C-alpha cells in the first residue's frame, strides 16, 4: 500500500516524432488523465514541449525547472535520441541534464534502445528510466500510465517503476511474448531486417531503472538503520539566524530520541562525546497534554532536577534536564495551552541561549518573541509576532501574520523582520555523516562496554555514578595506607635498638675520664 505523501512535482514532457509513426498524443493524454484522477492531482504541474527541436531543449528546461523530465520518441542506442530536426548525442544530453541536477530528480526515456543514454545520465541524476530494447507502442503507453498513476498516489520512483512494468503486463497480457520484429509497429527509427537476430523479450522486462550509485548506497544504509529505528521521516527542520550562534531545531512529531547519533531527531552535536549516541526519549501524551522523558540505557544517565531517572518521568515548566555530565536543558511547556509545544532550551556557560529543541506534535509553532511563540531569536523586536511554522504533506511552510504562505526549501533563506533565517531540512542522512556517527548497535553492544565507560564523568547532582564511587573508595584506602599503616611500619622506633644504643653510649662515657659522668663522680667523692 502506498503512503499518501505527495510532494510538489513539476513534469516536463519532451515530445519528438519526426516520422509521425508513434502514438505520442495518446501517451501524453493518458499520462495527464491518470495524474488528474489521482488523490495528489493538485501536487503536479505538467508542461509539454511538442515537436521538440535541439534549439528548444535548453530553453524548455531553463524556463520550467522540472523535477521530472519525460521524453517520448525515438532512440538509436549509442547515437542518442532523435529530436524533430536532428539527433542529440548521448554525451550532449548527459552534459545538459547535469546542469539541472539541483532540482531534476528523475528522467524517463520512453524510447527504444535508450539504456545507453540512461547509463550516462544517471551519473548525475538520481533516477533514470530507459529501455534496453525496442518496445511496442502500446507497451510504452501502458508503462507511462502505470508509472505516473503510482506517483499521483504518493508512490516513490521505485514504486512507480514497478507499477509501470505491471501495467504493461495487465495491458498486453498473453501477447507479451508473441511479437514480430518486422510486422508490428514498434517505437524505433531503423527497422530490424533479420528477425532471427532479434531476442524475443517480454515487453514488461524492457524498461530498466537506473539509480545513482551514491544515492543507492545511501538508501541501502538508511534501510539497514531503519530496521531498528524509525527516524527517516521528513519532520526535522533547523532554523538559524544569520550571524548568531543559536539554532532552533523543530521536530514535527509526538516523540523523539535524543543523542549524538544522526538517527536521533534531537541530534546533539557533542564533539566531546559526553552525550551517549542514543541517550533519552522525549514523548508527548495527547490525552493529558503532557511531556515525558525516559533514559534509554545510556551509559552516562539522564538527570531530571539533579536526580537520575530510572523510569519515565513527567516534565513540568522549569524542569532542568541533564544528559550525563555534559549538556543541560531548561524545559518549558504550558500544560493549559493545547497548542503549546515542548521546548528544551540549551544555554552556554555565560547564560546565552545556544539552541532550542522543540517537539511539535500538533504540526504548528508560533514564530516571534512573545512568551507563547517558541520559535524565537534574540534580535527580533520585543513582543513582536511574525507568524507561524507549519508542517504539511508537501513540506514546511511559513505563514506570515498576513496569511501569506511560503514553502521553505533546504539551504535557502527566509527574511523575517529584516533578518535572514537560514533553513536546513533533514531528510536523508549522507554516507559521510554515517561514517562519522554511530548507530544504536554500538550503544548497546556489550563487547563495547569498556570503551563506552570512558565517557563517564561525575555529573552535578545528588547521585554519583558507580565508577566514580569506586575511584573515591580506592583513593581513600590509599590515603589510609600512606597516613597510618606506612608510618607505623617504617617510622615507629624499635625498643631493642634504643636499649642497645643507650648501653653503648653509657660504656663510652665510663671510659672517658673527661666526660660529665666522671666530673659528677669526683664532686660526690669530695663531699
Q: Provide the residue-averaged pLDDT.
A: 75
Biggest sheet, spatial arrangement of strands: 19-18-21-22-23-24-13-12-30-29
How many strands in all? 30
Radius of gyration: 38 Å
Give the termini distance in whole angstroms: 130 Å
Uncertain residue segments: 176-198, 228-233, 428-463, 522-527
**Shape assignment:** elongated
Q: Give the fraction of residues assigned to helices.
A: 25-40%
Q: Which structural class best describes the helix and strand composition?
A: alpha+beta
Helix count from the secondary structure assignment: 13
Q: Which range does the strand content fall in?
A: 25-35%
**Sheet bearing the most strands, described?**
10 strands, mixed
Task: Give an overview in words.
The protein has 527 residues and is an alpha+beta fold. Helices cover 29% and strands 26% of the residues. The longest helix has 25 residues, at 466-490. The protein is elongated, with a radius of gyration of 38 Å. Mean pLDDT is 75; it is low at 176-198, 228-233, 428-463 and 522-527.
Keywords for this entry:
single chain; 527 residues; alpha+beta; 6-stranded mixed sheet; 29% helix; disordered C terminus
Secondary structure elements and their pairing?
Blueprint: E1 9-15, H1 24-37, E2 44-49, H2 54-64, E3 68-72, E4 74-75, E5 81-82, E6 87-88, H3 90-98, E7 106-110, H4 115-121, E8 127-131, E9 135-136, H5 137-152, H6 157-172, E10 186-187, E11 207-211, H7 213-226, E12 236-241, E13 247-251, E14 255-259, E15 266-267, E16 280-285, E17 290-295, E18 302-304, E19 307-308, E20 313-315, E21 320-323, E22 328-332, E23 342-347, E24 353-359, E25 364-368, E26 385-392, E27 395-400, E28 405-407, E29 413-416, E30 419-426, H8 431-436, H9 440-444, H10 449-452, H11 466-490, H12 495-511, H13 516-526
Parallel strand pairs: 1-2, 1-3, 3-7, 7-8, 13-24, 14-15
Antiparallel strand pairs: 4-5, 5-6, 8-11, 9-10, 12-13, 12-30, 14-16, 16-17, 17-20, 18-19, 18-21, 21-22, 22-23, 23-24, 25-26, 26-27, 27-28, 29-30
Helix pairs in contact: 1-5, 3-4, 5-6
Amino acid at each position: 500500500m502506498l503512503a499518501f505523501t505527495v510532494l510538489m512535482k513539476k513534469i516536463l514532457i519532451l515530445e519528438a516524432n519526426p516520422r509521425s509513426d508513434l502514438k505520442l498524443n495518446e501517451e501524453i493524454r493518458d499520462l495527464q488523465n491518470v495524474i488528474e484522477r489521482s488523490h495528489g492531482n493538485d501536487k503536479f504541474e505538467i508542461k509539454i514541449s511538442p515537436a521538440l527541436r535541439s534549439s528548444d531543449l535548453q530553453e524548455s528546461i531553463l524556463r520550467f525547472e522540472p523535477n521530472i523530465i519525460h521524453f517520448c520518441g525515438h532512440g538509436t542506442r549509442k547515437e542518442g535520441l532523435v529530436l524533430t530536426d536532428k539527433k542529440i548525442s548521448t554525451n550532449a544530453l548527459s552534459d545538459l541534464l547535469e546542469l539541472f541536477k539541483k532540482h531534476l530528480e528523475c528522467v524517463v526515456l520512453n524510447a527504444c534502445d535508450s539504456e545507453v543514454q540512461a547509463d550516462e545520465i544517471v551519473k548525475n541524476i538520481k533516477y533514470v528510466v530507459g529501455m534496453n530494447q525496442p518496445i511496442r507502442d502500446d507497451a510504452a503507453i501502458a508503462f507511462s500510465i502505470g508509472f505516473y498513476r503510482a506517483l499521483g498516489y504518493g508512490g516513490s520512483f521505485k514504486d512507480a517503476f514497478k507499477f509501470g512494468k505491471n501495467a504493461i503486463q495487465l495491458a498486453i497480457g498473453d501477447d507479451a511474448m508473441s511479437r514480430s520484429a518486422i510486422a508490428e509497429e514498434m517505437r524505433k527509427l531503423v527497422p530490424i531486417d533479420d528477425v532471427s537476430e532479434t531476442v524475443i523479450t517480454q515487453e514488461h522486462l524492457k524498461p530498466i531503472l537506473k539509480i545513482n550509485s551514491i544515492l543507492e548506497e545511501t538508501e541501502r544504509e538508511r534501510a539497514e538503520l531503519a530496521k531498528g529505528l524509525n527516524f527517516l521521516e521528513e519532520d526535522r527542520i533547523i532554523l538559524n539566524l544569520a550571524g548568531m550562534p543559536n539554532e532552533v531545531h523543530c521536530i514535527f512529531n509526538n516523540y523523539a530520541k535524543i543523542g549524538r547519533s544522526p538517527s536521533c531527531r534531537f541530534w546533539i552535536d557533542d564533539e566531546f562525546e559526553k552525550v551517549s549516541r542514543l541517550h533519552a526519549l522525549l514523548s508527548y501524551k495527547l490525552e493529558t497534554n503532557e511531556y515525558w522523558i525516559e533514559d534509554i540505557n545510556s551509559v552516562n544517565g539522564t538527570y531530571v532536577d539533579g536526580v537520575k531517572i530510572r523510569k519515565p518521568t513527567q516534565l513540568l515548566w522549569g524542569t532542568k534536564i541533564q544528559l550525563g555530565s555534559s549538556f543541560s536543558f531548561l524545559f518549558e511547556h504550558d500544560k493549559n495551552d493545547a497548542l503549546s509545544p515542548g521546548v528544551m532550551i540549551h544555554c552556554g556557560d555565560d547564560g546565552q541561549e545556544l539552541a532550542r529543541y522543540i517537539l511539535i506534535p500538533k504540526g504548528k509553532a508560533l514564530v516571534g518573541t512573545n512568551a507563547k511563540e517558541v520559535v524565537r531569536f534574540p534580535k527580533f523586536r520585543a513582543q513582536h509576532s511574525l507568524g507561524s511554522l507549519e508542517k504539511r504533506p508537501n513540506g514546511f511552510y511559513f505563514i506570515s501574520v498576513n496569511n501569506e504562505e511560503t514553502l521553505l526549501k533546504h539551504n535557502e533563506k527566509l527574511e523575517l523582520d529584516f533578518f535572514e533565517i537560514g533553513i536546513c531540512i533533514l531528510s536523508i542522512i549522507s554516507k559521510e555523516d554515517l561514517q562519522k556517527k554511530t548507530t544504536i548497535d554500538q550503544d548497546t553492544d556489550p563487547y563495547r562496554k569498556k570503551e563506552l565507560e570512558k565517557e563517564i564523568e561525575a555529573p552535578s547532582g545528588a547521585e554519583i555514578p558507580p565508577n566514580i564511587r569506586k575511584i573515591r573508595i580506592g583513593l581513600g584506602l590509599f590515603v589510609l595506607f600512606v597516613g597510618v599503616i606506612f608510618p607505623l611500619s617504617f617510622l615507629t622506633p624499635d625498643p631493642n635498638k634504643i636499649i642497645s644504643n643507650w648501653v653503648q653510649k653509657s660504656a663510652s662515657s665510663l671510659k672517658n675520664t673527661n666526660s660529665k659522668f666522671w666530673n659528677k663522680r669526683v664532686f660526690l667523692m669530695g663531699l
